Every structure is written in C-alpha cells, then in structure tokens.
Amino acid sequence: MNKNYIVPSEWSIIENGFDADNVEASESLFSIGNGSMGQRANFEEDYSGKTFQGSYIGGIYYPDKTRVGWWKNGYPEYFAKVLNAPNWIGIHIKINGTTFDLNTCKISDFKRELNMKEGWLSRSFTAEIPSGEKVEVTTKRFVSVEINEVGAIEYSVKAVNFSGAIEFAPYVDSGIMNEDTNYDEFFWEILEVIDGDNNACILSKTLKTEFHVATAMQVSFAINNKEVSATKETSKEEKKITHTYKLQVLEGDVATIYKYASYTSSMNYEIADLVEASFLNVEKAANLGFNALLASQIKSWDEIWKTADIVIEGDVKAQQGIRFNIFQLNQTYMGTDARLNIGPKGFTGEKYGGSTYWDTEAYCIPFYMATKDQSVAKNLLKYRYNQLDKAIENAEKLGFTNGAALYPMVTMNGEECHNEWEITFEEIHRNGAMIYGIYNYVNYTQDFAYIPEFGLEVMIAIARFWHQRANYSAAKDKYVILGVTGPNEYENNINNNYYTNYLAKWCIEYTVECLNKVKEDYKEDFDRVIEKANLTAEETYEWLKVSDNMYFPYSEEHNVYLQQDGFLDKELIPTDKLEASQRPINQKWSWDRILRSCYIKQADTLQGMYLFEDRFSKEELERHFDFYEPITVHESSLSPCVHSILAASIDRMPKAYEMYLRTSRLDLDDYNHEVHEGCHITSMAGTWMAVVQGFGGMRVWQDGILAFNPQIPEEWKSYSFTINFRGNTIKVYKSQTECKFFNESENEIKLIVDNKEIILTPSVEVVL
Amino acid sequence: MNKNYIVPSEWSIIENGFDADNVEASESLFSIGNGSMGQRANFEEDYSGKTFQGSYIGGIYYPDKTRVGWWKNGYPEYFAKVLNAPNWIGIHIKINGTTFDLNTCKISDFKRELNMKEGWLSRSFTAEIPSGEKVEVTTKRFVSVEINEVGAIEYSVKAVNFSGAIEFAPYVDSGIMNEDTNYDEFFWEILEVIDGDNNACILSKTLKTEFHVATAMQVSFAINNKEVSATKETSKEEKKITHTYKLQVLEGDVATIYKYASYTSSMNYEIADLVEASFLNVEKAANLGFNALLASQIKSWDEIWKTADIVIEGDVKAQQGIRFNIFQLNQTYMGTDARLNIGPKGFTGEKYGGSTYWDTEAYCIPFYMATKDQSVAKNLLKYRYNQLDKAIENAEKLGFTNGAALYPMVTMNGEECHNEWEITFEEIHRNGAMIYGIYNYVNYTQDFAYIPEFGLEVMIAIARFWHQRANYSAAKDKYVILGVTGPNEYENNINNNYYTNYLAKWCIEYTVECLNKVKEDYKEDFDRVIEKANLTAEETYEWLKVSDNMYFPYSEEHNVYLQQDGFLDKELIPTDKLEASQRPINQKWSWDRILRSCYIKQADTLQGMYLFEDRFSKEELERHFDFYEPITVHESSLSPCVHSILAASIDRMPKAYEMYLRTSRLDLDDYNHEVHEGCHITSMAGTWMAVVQGFGGMRVWQDGILAFNPQIPEEWKSYSFTINFRGNTIKVYKSQTECKFFNESENEIKLIVDNKEIILTPSVEVVL
C-alpha cells in the first residue's frame, strides 16, 4: 500500500499524529540539507523505536570493499559510499530522571512540519512519560544555507503537570555505522575527543580515504525565553562526548536548549585547523543566536525560490509535490562546489552508494541551468572535466587506448565504483550524456567559451572511446556497437542499441564540429588542447568513418527504428494486456523473463528522441511513441517524465498528465514502498522537466533560441514557472487562456512561441 | 609457471623432496577417496606451514546464504556447499616433548606416493627436529573401498639418534570451518563428545540441513612391529577429543600408531544409532588390522582397473595422466548410491560448491557407462529422476507452468544453488543434457526399459520446458529461443544459440518418439506416466509445432550454422593472431571485451555436432570445425577433449593430439595454477573420452551398434583400453598396425569397424 499520511499544503510537508510505522519514512521525507551537509529527520532525543539514523557531509566517502557473487575481470575493487557522519543533533533528555523516549510515551497533538519556503524542520507534541509527567515539546532545526557548515536546534520542553528537573544532555557521537556496508565494517577512526566550557568537539577521520572531520557543538539555555546558565557535567567516551545539564522548572515553565553544531572537513581546511574552525563556527552561530540564524535562513530560501518556484493553482497536492522536488534538489546541491554532485538519495539515505550517475547530465543539469546562475551548471560540467584522467584510466582498464575515456556509471571521485558487468561495462551510453550535458549547457547559456576552455578535452576523449568501441561488421558493411545495455536496463548485452549508436554518432559529429569552431575562433585553446590530446586531423577522419557509417536497426514494416538488433523476434504484447498481478514485473518475474520480454523499463529509443527532439518530425515522434510507449512499464523513476514531455509535444495531454502523476509525488506518497531508505533525488529533476519542458513546452535547441509551447493539464486552474535564462528571470504564466512572459533585465531576448518569434523586453506580455 | 614436480610413473603419483610451496598442490593431487568419503592429502601430524585442510563426506552439504553484489529476481537464497567434515586423520606427535612439525624440521629423503593401482597414499622422510632428534617416518593411509565408511592410517617413527619418548596424540576434531564460506560462518553444531577406552567419537550435526555425523577413532600401537599397549590420557574439548599416549623408545626403535576412523551419517542410519555404528566400524577395522584392510583395498582397486584401465606404451607421462584421471573419477564416484553425484572438485576441494553440473550427463556418464556395470550410469540418471519435482519447482519460480522442468545449473539436492543470472537462468541447454544422458545410456546399454520406468517423466517435463521457452517470431515466421547462454560462456544473453535450439528441437522429437514407443510396447507404464503428467496428444502436437519450425541461424557465405544471431557482426580474428600477452583472455580482458569478441571458451556449435556426430557428414564437420576451432580459446577444461574427438574423426590427428595434451595432465602439471584449490574431476572424464571416443573412435549411436575407428598419436608406441559393454569386457588394442577386440562373454556382439560389420565372439581378433 502507498502511504497517504502527508497533509496537503502548498508550502510545507506536514505530518499530523504520531505513528511509529511512519517514523522511518518521515525521517526521509522531512530531511534537511544545504548542499554541503544534510541529514535525515531523526529525533534529537532518544528513540527506542525503529529508526534509520543518518547524517551526511557532501564529498566525504568511503571505498567499501566490493561484494560480488562471482567476480568478473575488470570489476573495481571498491564501491565508494556516501558516509554516515558523526551525529551532531543528539540530545539525551530526562524528565525527573526518566529518559524521554517517544516510543514509551503517550503522545498527543503530534505535528511535524518541513517548511520549504523557509527551510526548517519543526516538531510539536504533548507527551506523557511512563511516570506520569506531561510535557509539551516544540523543536525547530535547520542547516544553514548561509554558513553551510552549521546547523542549529531549538528544543523546548514545557513542564505541563509537574515541577522538577529537566535534564538536557547534548552530545556529539562519532561511533556511527553505515546502514549500507558490505562487510559490517566501521568506517571512522576517532582521533581526538575535546571538551570545552560550553562546547565540545570530536576529530575523526575516515579509514582509507583519510577525510578528517571535526564535529563541534555549543549550547545555551533559556527558561521561559529568558537565557539562563546551567552547570555542566562531562562524560567523555572513546567515540562520544556528552554534556549533561539539569534545569529545575516549576509547573508551566518552558525549558529550552539551543544547540549549535558544525562540521569542518579536510576538504576545506588544513587538518591542524579543523578543530578550531569548527569551534569558531559554533561560537559564531551561538553569538548570532537562533533567531538571527533563522532569519538569514528564511532570506536564503527566499532567494532560491525567486528563480525556481513553480506555482500551480487548483491542485494543492500537485503544488506540494513540485515544490518538494524543487526544495529537495536545492537541499542536495547548491552548485557552489565543483567537487560535489547530486547523489541519488541526496542527504536522505545511503542506498546506491556513490554520488554521481548519468542522471546528473541527463536530468539534473536542465533544472540547475534554468533555476540558478549559469556557474552552477558549469560546476557540474567541471566535475566531469576534473575527473577526465580517471575516466581515461577507467577505459584503459577495459582495454581502450590512446586517451579514450569511459566515464563511470557511479562515482565519487572519478573512479568507477559499480560492479555489475551488464551495467558497469556495458551501459556505456552514459558517456554520450557527458557530451550532451555540455551541448545542452552551451545551447542554453550560449557560453561556448566553456568548450575551448574545458569541454573539448572531454569530448575528444569520448569521441575516441566511441571510435574504438564500434567495430566494422563485414556482414552489414557498417559500423556496429556490440554488447551494450541501453537506458532500458531490462535488456542486457544487446547489439546495436539505437540510442547508444545514435549518441555515439552524434558525439563524434558534434566533437568534430566543435573542433572546427574552436580552431577558427579560439586558436590558442585549440593548439593547447590538440597538443595535450595529441590529436591529428587524420585521427578525426577515422572517427568520422565510424559516425558516417553507423548502423541503425530499422523496421520497414513498422516504420520505426528498433531498440536493438532482433527486437522484433520478441512477442510484442502491450502492457495493458499484462495482468495487474504480474506488475511490477521487476518484483514478479525472474530476470531472464524480463530480459526476453518486450517490456521496456524506461525511455530508450524515445530517450534519444527526447534529447534530440528538434531533429525528428512530429510524425516520427508519434510513430515511435505509439510503438514503444505501449510496451513500456515505467519501472524506473526516470521513465515517466520523458514520456510525459514527449506526450505533451505530440499533443497527448491526458497521457502527459498521467505520466507526470507517476513521479510528481513518488516519495510523498511512497509509490515504491521504499521511501524509508531515502528520497529519489535525481528523479525529482525529471518531474521538474515534465512541468517546464513538457507542459511548459520550454526547450532550447542548438540555435540557442528558447521555445515555449505551454499547455496545462485540465486538472489545474493555472500555473506558472520561473526560470533563469542568460541572467534574466523569466516567469511563464499559463491559465486556460493566456501566457505571460516577464523579463526583468534590460536585454533583448528572442523567443519562439507557437512558431512566432518574439522579442522579449522588460515585462512583455504575450497572449497565446 | 606450470608446476613440474610430479615424478613420471606408470602407476603412481610421486613427489620427491619436500617443498613447502608445493604442499597445498600436493594436498589436492594426492587426495584419496572411495566414492563415499574422501580427503585432501593433509599431513596427519601438526603442520604450521601453508595448508588447506579438507575432509568430505558424499552428500553432506550446507546451504550457505547466497552472496551477490546486486540481487536479481529469481536468485536462490542459498548455495548448497560441499561441507568440510570433522578431521579424523589428525595425530599430534611430540618427540621428547617437542611438537613434531615439518615446517620446523630439517627434512631429507622426502617422498610422497599415491599408489593408484592399489589405492593408498604414503609418505616417507627423515626429519631432524630443532632440538636435534632425528626421526625416520613412514606413513600409509587409505579410505577403504570395501568398508566405505572407514579410513586407516599406519604411522611409524624411527628414533634414529636418540632414546626417549615419542608421544602420539590421535584426535577427532569437529571444530572445522569451510575454506569456502560466504559469510565466515561455522556450519557444524557439536552434540556429543564421547570418550572410550581406546576409542572416541564426536557426534555433530550440520546447521540448517541437520545431517548428523558420528566421527569415531580407535588406535593401537606397535614397537618394532610388535603390538604394545600404551597408557592413555584424555583431553576433551568442546569440539575435539584427543587421546595422548607416550611411548618410550631406544635409539633405532620404530614406534607405530595404527589409527582407524569412521564416519557414519544420518543419510544411512537412524540418528540414535550413529555413534554405535561408528564405534562398531572402527572396532571391526581394528580387529581386521591394517594389513588385512590394505589387502582388501588392493583387491578392490584391482577389480576397478579390470574394466577401466587404459594402457599407453611409449609415453610414461601420458600413461600416468590417463590413469590419474581414471583413478580420481573412481575415487569421487563409485556409483552405488543414487543420492550422490560427481562434484567438480570431488573430495579434493570445495570450490564451485554444489556437487552436480551438466558435466555429469555430458562428460561423466560415458565414462561410468563404459567402465562399470550399467547400474552405475543408471544411478546417475536416477539421481535426476529423483529430483524431478525440484526441477519443476525450479521452473515454476521462473514463470513456467504445467509441469515444465528446468534442472538446476548446480545442485546438491535438486534445488538450484547457483546465482549468476546469465548462467543460472539462461544457460538452459543443460536441460537438454538431461535427456541426452538418457538417450546415450539407452543406446549404449540397450536398456530401453529405463525410459518407461523412469526416463519418460523427465523427458515430458523437459519437452514442456522447451515448448514454453521458445516463442514465435512473427518477423522470422519461426520459433526462436531468446536470451540464453550456450556452452560457450563467453557469450551471455544471446538469441538463437544454435546448440540450444538444436537440443530443444531434438529433445521434443526424441520425447515424442519415445512416447510412441512406450505406448506401443509398455502400455501400462504409458498409462501411468500419461496420467501422472496429465499429458494429451494435443499437447504433444503443440510441442511439435515448435520443433518442426525451430529457427537456426545460418550463414550462406560461410556455409555454416552460426553460433547465435548476429555472430557475423563480430570481427573474426583467429586466435593465432592474438598476442600471447593477451592470453588467457579471461585473465587479461575485461568481461565485456570477452563477450563482444569472437572468442569461444569451449565447444558450442561443435558441442552439438559432437553429441550428434552421426547426423552430420564429414564435410559438414570439417567446415564447422574449420570455422569455429580457430576462434576457440579453450579456456574451459571441458573444451579440448571435445575438439580432440572431432579432430580425430575428421583425420586431423596432430590437432587431436594437441588438444588431448591440453587436458590430460591439467592438474598434474597445474596448467591453470589452481590445483591447490582441488582437482578438476569432471574434466578428467573428458580426457578419458578423448582417448576412447577420439583416438579409439568408439561411439555408440541410436542403432545401438558399437563403432570403433582407432587411430593413435604418433607419439605413442601402442595403447589399449578396456570397456564394459552390455556386460562384456572388451579390450581394444592399437599399435601402429593392428587392433584387437576381446569379448569375454558368450554373447554375440555386433560391432562396426571401419564401416565393416563384425560379430564379436570370445577373443575375436580383428586386424584393421
């Protein structure tokens, strides 16, 4: 059963009433993050019920030893994992000597809220502990966007029916295990546990990778909103430090603890300076105080929403869903650090280990490009540029030569850390996404200078890969690409996947096109890159032999490109003829049966047509959509969005809306019964695309012109979305009857709306 | 580097000189077994150097929890493993109080011998211990073929340069771990440790499977060959019991311990009787005494060799190699128990877990059929018959219905215990081998009655599987079989593997043929089977639609059947153009590169032509051999034998001999640098086939007539082999000029030799 307990609300995620069975799901859904650090919505106080404790720091990982059933040559020895980091939120609480634990209390009026507009998490409830004392608790917590190493907690307890002692024992604990380990190993070594007056710090380092992290805390107290001092008792353990404070209260009093915490890591500091930096952070935070920090937090999120909000009227759940997605994407990645990327679970869980998939290029870059300054998307591209050497090494391990690069399927630091041969070695279309990301960025921003400066080296290495990976088939007198897995992972080790072959051909062509342009316009860069890559014109002619003679499987009978060789040997039974009891097939069928069936997990041939929609006629799109969508089971969270966009562009709005619904509230309604493991961060970008590119009809093609063709689902009264386009904020409105564009800058922007060219000047209004 | 330390000898495996680096390899090579139990050639005394201790009991296994990197639907939860069983050989020895350990001694005149003619293992050496005492040691050990629960050791120590105490402390130890475990778990629970006068026993049971095993020992002593009594001291631990005896010797005396041991298991006894049965066994053995037991052992092996020996003159290494293979096959499986089968490592190691692969049907049945009473091969067939229900369950898990059966890739008790989707789910040709085994048996023995009694049920279930597994391809207007792995495991998830499609078609046809014959000649059985299987004539017509319209990929250009669809898209570069540095490709190349290459691991299309050689013309065989063999890397120990046989049958004797050499001494010369893990038992049967079927040209086809077409390699002076054929012992001689057949029975046997029909009467002699 799907969960259905989240209260619809335009700007907040709200849970009313306490249900222990929802604790782990809520820990995921109410997660908070600031792009640099983040955490699941664990309780501050002790909780003896089922819980998944998780706190994460961007970029801090551990290479867990690979676990396989049967080793295949070429598998990486390690799988780099997001690392569960020291706990800084914890506060043991005792009421008159009894440990406060919601699992043992009578609870009423429980409310949890994640305020997305302002970027904070709160709880409030009344609880009666076993010994009869009743308390009203309110908590608020956030991780600061402005000071992105700092988190703050306000935790208030009202003594409803007693006078006595409320004991707060805030702590920092580095004795944590990853939920997701292959061999139940401990990943941290504790170096120092430092006690201060009203503060404390633990310096620990990760094994193998030797990331050093200082986790500090500082606290202050108030009774009835008046600051008070309290006497500390320190308990120092091997991996944990706790300060215990006992506050005496009278019936009706409210005792409050403010806890400020900080992570500093060796990614940003000298190791010798870590502890001091962390102490300075908490001191600074404490001096500012909780309310000032919160005010700054609200301002930061207001700035984010200005260029990212989507407003949907007439459908509160859709409104909540899309804002949740935008909010989580921002919590995961803010774009200020080219060493970070977008983990599939963000800071909400550990599953899928490494942080970076091709999802970044195929699904996330459009979101960040359109909602933030162009430096953010550029940082995502530079992440790959910085890992080019590793991608070349990775290809060498698989037998490629001459600087050919294969970007990893999953990575933290550029090294491959996935180990499933049909994916790791064969799902090579990901390499194409790397160039597509550059292409998309350059089209959107018109920042062609990125290519001579960074992109070209990546492109050359990838073109080399495709050239080597294809082979000449004498039987076909064409170049073929054998033994691949396409985006549809329900087919493995297939030959001539249309999508892969198309991308390979395009990558070579686009690289040569850019080489020529760079030679013309950026002579100095050209010379530098050519020398570094040791590239000759002759070599590029060899590449073009492959791209000019690439084979594409095609069916004359159906007048469509085939997903792969032999596709028509399958029994093509549409999904609506599949009994409900058989779905999802990935739970009901054995893997071989899935593989030999015609069923498609996520857009594959259609993924190519989505990426290059401008190169296909509407009739072609319709033909392929009608051939493939009916046999697509959409069992990847990345599937419905692409189909929604294509459906909208061929005027199938009911289908487009049906597909949109399948992901917009994927986590909030827990469609896949797995939200307790964390949220599906990257697929949230897909939902954003469905609204902006699909319903909004907003695409930018190689000519650099922005096209809009907005349509909205009948279920919505109106909607608008805001994008950032070459430094301008454009807001697109669409009700049943009109669409407006606002350009807040002085610049002229050329748009295409319904095939008409329009020059945008400030506040132009276009009625469609 | 290959090892090259085994001394050539016609009847023995001999190691001269002690080399600690060879200990583990020798532990494998000098293994002893009697088909019911067996063990690696570990030292009886303590050894602190590198060693792999292993003792095994046929049929006793443990379902180890499956370990995978990424779970696929349909994987079995457990992998049934050969179980390292309690140690019964151990004798702690002290010389004047110092533990005797070869790893700390000066050793000279070390000799180890495995006498294959008589079935025993011995060691002799002189050793000086660190404190200066010098001893001469001789040991002899065997596991009795006659009393197949019993093992015996004679261990003598001569005090060369001292008078003093020699302490023997024989023990039984159930505290052993499997070398091969997925999660480092202990698989045994110790129930009882029982101390007796001159005997002791441990009753333990396997976790989960609850096999109970009683391991007993009894000892006696002699000084200078005269029986003496000695005083015992018992040390009883949780998992081990030790009896310590101190013998006083004078310089020049020889102290001997005789240790008799026994395994009894709940496979053969009531649990309550196990301990007593084991004590009775050791008492019986001790009463008979070592020499009487040894005499019986020699007699047992003499009987075995009578119908199994192959004599090669002029090539001692070849002689030693083939006898080693015959010896190990017999040590692994004697054929008296239909619950047992032939593990890939026999009793010499643990790798590859479960005991039964399709190797049994494809490679081992011919050996056992030709060298033993026909009841032995029948037991191997009945093993599968007894597991039919599990094979049907296994198919159901993969979505098959109506009693279709898929026999497991690897099994102990009929349940699948392999977990690699491309093998477990897709290497389904193994199902065809099940019927081929029956077909082969019936042709050889003419015991058609096996089919109505047992075989037919298996055949119907498999025919049903093939009918359901194929699907109609509208594009081809034929039936196709998609998503399989053929015998060549260097291709995965391919479509229309010629070998698989051929077997599928043949299985249906042969099943229908047998159904008709049984209907005609065994009406009662027919009615019983038909009712049990709920089979109708209509259903068989549906099967025949598939077999009559099966698709086979074919190349007009090359005039050969293609291994699979799309094979000609590969670059066909013969192996002799592959640089030596690139081989073996399974160590040098990543898995994807292997998959998309043209290189073949082991006979695939040619495996089909080998099995059904009578259905192909010599020209067809030549064409396919010349197409496939040059791109075959023979990286499976099961590959060269089939190619050797085919090469011989198309008169390519140098090639046949080259291929033969690649497996005949695979373990003795440790070609693959892995003999320390155990020997390749099933591939030894392949070597036997190369000699008998290849050089001997001995095949039996469906008409039941035995054909011989002997040729021998130029390197051999002459050779002969002995086979058992329908109760007759036939010895085939071949020198450069002649070939003789001896028939020891009264029956007339029709043979085909060089296309001439010959009636064999006793001692007929045929000059070819």
UniProtKB/TrEMBL annotation, chains A, B:
Domain named Glycoside hydrolase family 65 central catalytic: residues: 323-689
Stored SUPFAM superfamilies: Galactose mutarotase-like, Six-hairpin glycosidases
Organism, as annotated: Lutibacter oricola
Residue numbers annotated as active site: 489
Domain Glycoside hydrolase family 65 N-terminal as annotated: residue spans: 14-266
Family: Belongs to the glycosyl hydrolase 65 family.
GO biological process, one term: carbohydrate metabolic process
One Pfam family here: Glyco_hydro_65N
Domain Glycoside hydrolase family 65 C-terminal intervals: 698-760
GO molecular function list: carbohydrate binding; glycosyltransferase activity; hydrolase activity, hydrolyzing O-glycosyl compounds
Protein name stated in the entry: Maltose phosphorylase
InterPro entries according to UniProt: 6-hairpin_glycosidase_sf, 6hp_glycosidase-like_sf, Gal_mutarotase_sf_dom, GH65_N, Glyco_hydro_65_C, Glyco_hydro_65_M, Glyco_hydro_65_N, Malt_Pase/Glycosyl_Hdrlase
Positions bound to substrate: 358-359, 601-602
UniProt xrefs under NCBIfam families: PRK13807.1
